[in-house]
């Protein structure tokens, strides 16, 4: 949408003559600065695939072997496959709803726009908008923390007796994010997200190779695939594992990614999803299976921790260094992608859509506000290095509603399928089960926070 006027004229001309079931479609609204400058509609379906992959496939994939320790082989792989099928179906439904609404003259560029037009103004303003904002900003904080931990890991590999603290590495990572955050639009991240796609394939391949090497070496731990703990712990562990797996598939910004597509958008999102899920199948199952096979129920929260062994690393230092560098670089891209909803809100409120994007009037507030949002996120990451526990709670309340429940509701309300149809009951079943998981997952997450609370302290060197 760099050439704004022609695009708007084209949309207006199309909408003015378009009819749906004999009703003239509503005329398009003038785009605000957030939609105009951040969500530029210039991308191809391949660019969409890059954005989708970066928004979903992140280093949290390295926690999948741990999720399998809570579920076992059959339960773990079944949940992993089911979550993949449900989210692919869910995201495709969102895309179909967006295409349908566009035919009616409502081009929705944001999740809150969908909620406003389909469910009513209150849903967009008071529920979906704030929920998506805090989930995405929470992801920025979590990624900043993960980036700092990766930097510290690399530092300790080269200097085992180093005295630097975690918050110092988090600050360094925040400095990198501060620069990347100034990328003007979501579309401008397409090349970064292509590199991100390659990097997630690279570190997943490294993890799989490392796990297989350790599993066949004389350093291999004694493997036990039974689920540990008391009956109560195992039951809570099941829901913790489901929350972990659901979070690995979560995006929360599907409408914003579809908004980056150049019109006509019909069918492009499906192609982008196929690109994304081909990467997901390759990485998720290879990491989960190889990591759990190598370490059994001793698999830790991230499989990279298992590579370090009890006394000395189980893999060559150069291999561990390479894997962590790949992870660090990819998490930088993920961080910037999840900054986009924050950037879009700032642009909408403080930029002037009638002025050029790179005018002083628009550049100065953009620079100040984006820098401020990164500084705040970095500060929270440094203060709360236990933020992963909090994100599990956010995931239960946020990721599941946005990615598993609302798409089903949007589809049923928009297309009004017959109550005797299979799709109506499939959507209702998925939404109902997901709603139950929100409650149980929230309880399990709160329980984990209580158990870990004794180790919490500000600016801890974890």
The helicity comes to over 70%
What's the total number of strands? Answer: 2
Provide a count of the helices. Answer: 17
Q: If you compute it from the alpha carbons, what radius of gyration comes out, rounded to the nearest whole angstrom?
A: 22 Å
Let me know the largest β-sheet. 2 strands, antiparallel
H and E order: HEEHHHHHHHHHHHHHHHH
Low-confidence stretches: 1-25
First CA to last CA: what distance? 44 Å
Tertiary shape: globular
Please state roughly what percent of the residues sit in beta strands, choosing from under 5%, 5-15%, 15-25%, 25-35%, 35-45% or over 45%: under 5%
Can you give the mean pLDDT? 86
Structural category: mainly alpha
Strand order of the largest sheet: 1-2
Give a written overview of the molecule:
With 462 residues, the chain is mainly α. It is built from 17 helices and two strands. The protein has helices at 4-17, 33-38, 45-56, 64-103, 111-119, 121-158, 166-180, 190-216, 231-249, 254-259, 268-295, 303-307, 317-337, 340-350, 360-383, 387-415, 422-452; strands at 19-20, 23-24. A hairpin with a 2-residue loop joins strand 1 (19-20) and strand 2. Helix 7 packs across helix 13 (317-337). The radius of gyration is 22 Å and the shape is globular.
Could you write a compact summary of the structure shown?
The protein is mainly alpha-helical. It has helices at residues 4-17, 33-38, 45-56, 64-103, 111-119, 121-158, 166-180, 190-216, 231-249, 254-259, 268-295, 303-307, 317-337, 340-350, 360-383, 387-415, 422-452, and strands spanning 19-20, 23-24.
